[in-house]
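>> received
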Amino acid sequence: MKPNPRLSQSVEDYLETMYCLGRDKGEIKVKDISQALDVKPPSVVEAVQKLSQMGLVSYQRYREIKLTPEGQQVAEAIMERHTVLEDFLNLLGVGVEVAGDDACAMEHVLSKSTICNLKSFADFMEVYPYASQFMEAFRYYHQHGKLPEDEK
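>> returned
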């Protein structure tokens, strides 16, 4: 889950997009990156050239882009951070679209230890026998601003 400290948010977004395109489409092309990130193709080419110089992608003009083994590893770490954050936000009841957008913003700024703690909490909630009761009480509190009344 360790991000590469020398990468900017923009570079991480490019890597994440390339990873998803490779996984979903089987190939990574400039025009697809351009569409996915809503940027102009020349901006994509510039970013890909920078990533190539960093050893994270292999790129030849007018050919398919490929993540190098290091690029694949970094992209997987970025995706893992994103997934942990999105899952945690979903656990809190944040809507799917908002959780995805917020996870994108948060994945670049939260520390590794914070993300690990959020993951640990989400994992705990999956195995804790009283998790569903806890979450029902939390949802009630979130909606009403007070604890649910005891049913005695």
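>> The chain has a mean pLDDT of 91.
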